[in-house]
Input
Amino acid sequence: QVGGGEFPPPITPTGTEEIQDVTKAFNNMAQGIKQLEADRNVMTAGISHDLRTPLTRIRLAAEMLDDNNQWIADGIEHDIEDMNDIIDQFIDFARNSRQEEGGEVCNINDLIEEVVQARHFDDDHTIAQKLQSVPNTKLRKVAIKRVMDNLIENAFRYGSKHLEIHSLFCKKRNFVTFQVRDFGEGIPAEKIATLSQPFARGDTSRGSTGSGLGLAIIKRIVDIHHGEINYFNHPEGGFVAEVNLPLVKD
Output
């Protein structure tokens, strides 16, 4: 549990003196990690607040520019939005995406439908749904929808304007799976292994803006579900993000 980022109550020391010493040392270690986590959250919240205050002043100053300088104001507004997005990613990374407690039994296909439907505002970007029948499973709905939405956003931004999203059930491994595929140029094989590391980015041809935390946040959410995420170039072209979630019944 501690290895997964959770902090259960201290273990009661029992057994031989040596085992009790190990138990006490483990409790102290877990408490220290928990305190570091709390300190990091406080620090990140403070940094976020301190950065947003001057950004607000800059936004107000930009709004006061006259019409002749509207193009400057628009550029400033765009940069401010980018910076706010980066700050939000830092906060999400620090909070470990654990705000949504527990989970509920639902169907992956229903979540895919909701996420795709929410993106039906741009006719220039399309998502083909290729969904198989999959069993219900227990998960954090908001968190998994966030994973889907972020993967779709990345695929649109760095891959292609047309995507495919697949779902399937692997009975042998007892996994419910969904995949987001784009039809872009893909990513060099040697860089795929580093995608989920904080601040890492893929090939520069797929874009170089942002904090590099998006995929690390996705990995944390998947880890919370004891699942796995794989990235690979499709044999017929394009790039695929695959999320495998263990089947959990309530």
Q: What stands out?
A: The chain has a mean pLDDT of 85. The chain has six helices and seven strands.
